[in-house]
Amino acid sequence: MQKSLLLRVVLPLFLFATSPMPLLAQWEVSTPVPSANGLDDGMVFDQSGNLYISQYQGAVVRRITPDGTVSVFAEGFDTPNGLAVDGAGNLYVANVFGGRISRVTPGGTVTQDFISVANPSNVLFNAAGDTLYIAHYRTSRISKVAIADPGNVTTWVSGAPLNGPIGMAFDADRNLYVGNYNNGRIFRISPAGDITELASIQSFLGFLVLSNGFLYATSYNRNEVYRISMDGSSVEVIAGSGAKGQADGVGTAASFDGPNGIVASSTGDTLYVSEFNTGTLRMLVSSVPTHADAAEVPRGGLLSLENYPNPFTASTTITYTLGEPGQVSVEIYNMLGQRVRTLTAQSIAGVQSMQWDGRNDAGQRVPPATYLYTMRSGDLVESRLLIRR
Fold this sequence. Notes:
Number of helices: 0
Structural class: mainly beta
Distance between the termini: 38 Å
Helix content: under 10%
Strand order of the largest sheet: 22-1-25-24-23
Number of strands: 32
Radius of gyration: 21 Å
Strand content: over 45%
Oligomer: single chain
Largest sheet: 5 strands, antiparallel
């Protein structure tokens, strides 16, 4: 096995239109955390918005705080891979070659051998948060353990068609979706353990996330990010040219170098992807194509045209086209989904603008970082990136 990863984030971004023909979403790729940061494997958010990242080719788990500070949170692991967080904020770390799952308290106290289990590659809690599901890459099986009885690990499903499972995601009906790293096949496993093949992508499949009625997956060697419908009838590339690289851009104009883990915002319009080959965190933000004039804007809606300058130092101007007079609001979030500023305006129809001075609601300058804004008017919402230098 060469890699793996899991991410989780709660950026409150969404996109839907009231017109019969909704505008088609595109995915704008950016790089909020550059390379050489060891962000190459499992990721998960805690309830406070801290992001934990395991370094597969190492022995540490790093933490990114909401203000963007990166530090070593815990160490002493053996090829740490997938991560999970329970309701109390405890972090669970799969040690692939260590044969164990470690538990780390919110204060950083490590119990290295909390669960003894062979070659765990990923961990995932059920909806109730009382049972941990474990993917085993080398033995092609899924086991589970009640967190209250960590010494009693049982095999749930094993053998073909599983083939190097790593990616896992639950739906609301308690079906588990599992992705094979080795051949890119994706399966639905019912609560009773019945396995049905759903779809496949180009191997090697990194991780899965389920959001807004779609599965999203990475192809590590094809350098692409996929969206899969829940019935398996549609499999499409939403980002990545297929060539190795680190170019930012929209959709297939962007490039990746070993995309691995993937996680979605709470509404599915922001995806985070890790790159195993570079230790880089990439971000995909859903947006709609821009149009030339207000005549193409749904009634009561808006289209953001640009934010300039971007990147900016002191202030930036957000320019938009409004379909008819109405209230416009802009909510600005940091990388971990925390709202830092809300702007509102009563606007007339046509091309309008709004300025952000780089301050939060308390009047303090926000630190240099990548931010996102959601602009709302009527029922249409559009999201864009803002970068403060």
